[in-house]
Amino acid sequence: MRSRIPDRLCSEAVQLALAAAEDVAGPGRVGEHLGVEVDGDRVVTHFFACREDAYTGWRWAVTVARAPRAKLVTVDETVLVPGPDALLAPQWVPWSERLRPGDLGVGDLLPTKQDDERLEPGFTEVDLRTAGEPLGFGAAAVAHELGLGRARVLSRVGRDLAAERWEEGFGVRTPMAQAAPAHCVTCGFLVRIGGPLGQAFGVCANEYASADGHMVSLAFGCGGHSEAAVMPSVPPAAEPVVDDYDVEPVRVRHTGGSVDDAGPGEELGHS
């Protein structure tokens, strides 16, 4: 068990530790003595403030020690260490964990791990032949239609993760869906998809909707629902009707200079 009582000779070797720190950092770059920490029997570490602007809150740590029954104190090591309030770089995160949706750009390759939990083994044509299944005319095409013929397919975890993302984007709990007059499941602009996810999602094909081209929950909805408000058709304008058989007398007063041959106050027949 380490002794928590600092060795007197090692603790008093402040100048020795300061000289060791300045030898590494350079003159004028080591600040005041901050304290001593016991590392073991006859082993202590002296801490000094760091005056480097780039290392705010860091400390120079100089470890000194002496042999049993010896009075000579020697320097073990000198390092720059962060203090309680030191400015530190963020913890390193592997690139595979830093990726976010939409980060994949043109020409980028995103390797998929062999044990990716989002995927599970599929059934290829070789697997079907090995199992003794007949592959007659059109059988391969049917296999691909059902999702076969691929080395890996979505696992249950992969489907659940996809459903969570899609539900968050265009799901029933979004403000748009809460204010919608009807759900996508009854909309004529919904394009249905196959597979297990097709039981809960489809693709919007309404060019005026915010979800156009996106995967939407069948319980989602918006004001662009095909049956929400059907615009009534505008009736065609009626053809004008002219009555050529009735004559209606009209009194017309002409002012001077009229090109009409009738005199002022004369009645004219108009048909």
The number of distinct helices, counting runs of at least 4 residues, comes to 7
Main sheet, how many strands, which sense, barrel? 4 strands, antiparallel
Gross morphology is elongated
Report the mean per-residue pLDDT as an integer.
Answer: 82
Examine the coordinates and then state which fold CATH places here, giving the name of the CATH topology of the domain at 8-82.
Nuclear Transport Factor 2, Chain: A
Structural class: alpha+beta
Strand content: 15-25%
> Do you know the CATH architecture of the domain at 8-82?
Roll
The end-to-end span amounts to: 128 Å
Largest sheet: spatial strand order: 1-2-3-4
Q: Based on the structure, what is the oligomeric state of the protein chains?
A: single chain
Give start-end ranges of low-pLDDT stretches: none
User: What proportion of the residues is helical, as a percent range?
Assistant: 10-25%
Succession of helices and strands = HHEEEEHEHHEHHEEEEE
Radius of gyration: 44 Å
**Beta strands, count:** 11
Give the CATH level 1 class of the domain at 8-82.
Answer: Alpha Beta
